[in-house]
Amino acid sequence: MQAALRLARHRAPVSRAVRCLATTASPSAVAPTAPLTASKVTPVPISNVEAQWAKLSSEEKLSVQEQLEEIQKKDWTTLSLDEKKAAYYVAFGPHGPRTPVSQPGDALKIFFWTMTLVAVAGGLFATARVLGPPPPKTLTKEWEEASNVRALEMKLNPITGISSEGYSGKGYVVSK
Predict the structure, then answer these.
(1) Half-sphere exposure of 67 toward its Cβ, with a 13 Å CA cutoff?
(2) Which of 40, 48, 93, 144 makes a 20 to 30 Å CA pair with 128?
(3) How many C-beta atoms surround the C-beta of residue 83 within 10 A?
(4) How far is CA 164 from CA 114, 146, 153, 170, in A?
């Protein structure tokens, strides 16, 4: 506790002008707010809230939520099916943060553009193969066989490699 007080005392002093600027709000920024209950909002019928929800203003949505809060205080066995559906939709419906990220038909667009980009990449690869230089001569089968002969002449890797007794591998030949 004393360490915290000691640290608090060693802070740089803030000038009075800066403190006043930080706490004073300009008159234009502070607007008088009217209470939400003062404005008259037309009652919204609770039946078929799912279809109307996107078109309702924020005041009407708040009004529907308040209506549903009052209705839900009753016994749930006395609620109508429309009231139960409306309460469920307002609480868990696909609006606000639960709005679906993708729209219907997006999967087809994603598939189409993915296939288009794969085709473009394949075309670029084929073009590079056709227009590119031929492979180097050291990758031919004849060169690799000559490398085997040269390795045997020089007795390379006599313990486990191509020059060892009983060696049955392909040596340096890797091309088909």
Answers:
(1) 20
(2) 144
(3) 19
(4) 52, 18, 12, 13
- Taking a C-beta distance cutoff of 8 angstroms, is the pair 162, 148 a contact? yes
- Block means of pLDDT (10 residues each) for the chain, length 176 residues? 51 50 50 51 76 85 89 88 88 81 90 98 97 93 95 93 91 87
Amino acid at 53: W
Q: Whole-prediction pTM value?
A: 0.41
Nearest to 59 by CA among 74, 39, 73, 87: 39
Give exposure, 48-70, as e/b (b: 16+ Cβ within 10 Å).
Answer: ebeebbeeeeeebbebbeebbee
> How far apart are the C-alpha atoms of 154 and 159, rounded to whole Å?
13
